[in-house]
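Hi R.,

Here's the chain you asked about this morning:
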Amino acid sequence: MDTFKIDDVAKESGLTKRTIRYYEEIGVLFPPERSEGGMRLYTRKHIERLSQIVNARDVLGFSLMEIQDFVAIREKLDEQKQVYWKTEAAEEKLSQLLEMKVMVDKQMEMVDQKLSKMAEFRKEIAYMQKRINDGITKMST
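And here is the predicted structure, written out as tokens:
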């Protein structure tokens, strides 16, 4: 498995080394293995997780607390998928799928809440925009 130094991870993720270490410290990013000299050795999975964190933060506008919840659900989902693929009994597979559904539903609810807030905010701005445009039209005639 390829490993990466924190400089490489920072460059690829667009985050600072300090931010990456902070995400590890608060548990948003799982800790990497360390070399004999104590240097952090990141994997592709760390980089993918950081990408998810950045998207949750930048695209969805999640707070750190929300990111922690979102990422925790993602980790549980990954674990459930592994169990699912190793399970052969149909009843157990169904049970795994039902557990995964609850988790995905929770993530969808989190995203929907953000979208709802954004739609409300957009509606307010559209209303102000319309009033301004109406005022400009009225003053121009």
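One quick note: The mean pLDDT is 94.

Cheers,
M.
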